[in-house]
Amino acid sequence: MKKKKKSKKSGRVRIRVRITPNRTSTTIKTYDATPKRFTSKIDPLNLEEQKQRFLKYGLVPRFELRCSPDRMQDIINTKRAQIRFQYLKDARRILDHISEKFGYGEDFMLASFGNRISSTQATPLLSEYLKQNMVDGMLSVGWTKDLSCSGRMAMTGPNTRLNKPEARKFSLWLKDSVDNAYLREGGITCLADHEIGTHFFRSSNDGLQPWYSNRDRFGLRSVKSQPLLETEEGLATVNTHFQAKIPYLFMPALVYYTSCKATEMTFEELYDHLQHYVQNPEQRWKHVMRVKRGLENPNDLGGYGKDQCYFAGAVEILRNIDNIDFTLLYAGKLCLDEISRVKRIARMECIKLPHFLQNIEKYKKRLRYMARLNGLIPDDEQKAPSRSRSTKNRKVTSAMSSTSSLVLRTGVISRSSSSPPLKMSTDSPLPKTPSPPLSVPPSQRCVSPMKCSSPARRLLDRRTQSPQKLMSSDVSQSDLHYSDDGYLRRNDSIPAISTTVS
Hints:
Shape: globular
Strand order of the largest sheet: 3-4-6-5
Largest sheet: 4 strands, mixed
Mean pLDDT: 79
Number of helices: 15
Low-confidence stretches: 1-10, 15-22, 381-475, 493-502
Oligomer: single chain
Order of helices and strands: EEEHHHHHEEEHHHHHHHHHEEHEEE
């Protein structure tokens, strides 16, 4: 960047040159073990040892954790660690459908995310992803074998109250193992959409916002709150399946279901039970371990239910697609109900968005398809009727669909449209009962239909001023009377007056 400044004495122009070093590209490295500062407090330190001990000899694992048993018990008792059953029915339905349609979960993962690849094959795909989203050099990426999950986005830097977001450093850690379900041809890109396309972008944009150093001042929840956790991981889960060939929420549903079953099964029983959905022993080990790792004795009932936030958050987002401003949701670490609160103060001109959010209408369309596929929202009510071949038939169809029959009653207009009725919800069907007959006392009947003060009657009077001449001059008011059933009839017993207004 160059700045020109003219000297007043000599008249010379002095040029100041500010040299900004070019940002180096991201180097993806391989590590023997994950550094402790990037591991969680509940990650077992002897994970690989206990894994081989269980898979080879069938011995119940004994996990060594970074925190003390008392501290671990406090973590288990927190609100975000509680096991919930709100979406168990939805999770079980998705798992059963996958089992019937594909067999085991591995067959579905093959059809949806492609063949398995090694970390060496996945590294060029990650480098291309970083360049595509223009974040190359803004974070570090490392492969490790002892990670307790498929991937983890970590951030280090000064305390947020110091308000120095530029001092933050981001790093992405990926598991190089068979139990990484997304280490596949298409799965590695989907995993990048989860970690980079969601967590990194939202965290990076959050540092540009006025609420970054003091969320309480703006009435925003803590970054460790349960609602924000569900929104963060739910959005990441939706983005994980955005580019999947078949976007069934199989893995999140399996995690949710496993946590629920942990309340009634031991470690070994739960491991055997999951064989109905997952055949791979290492995959089953991973899911059971993540639920039972917080228990002093993993064979006890109960577990750590934090991972349920992936499925729960995704369900909430997919059921409220049209009510969410996804661009504003990417302005920072925000919950779904906090979007409207920061709409006027969010700095939107400087935020970064991932590639899949460049076309917001295409993004929402894909999410609606994902929601319908997983049975989270009903299908479209009914497709529009096909056009007739002849012009005459098209006109007749159009006229029939737009007409409504008006039945004259005492101050009431009853419309019977030819459009199809809305589908009832299968969860709480409503009985279809006929409307009761209208009974009007003689004292409340309108004597003169042309001078009635009822708004419905005045609307009818305006509609009758049409070429059809419903009430022609040869019909006088004395020729009309109201019958006991409330209908307006002629004195010569002609049926109730009705007309079709186009």
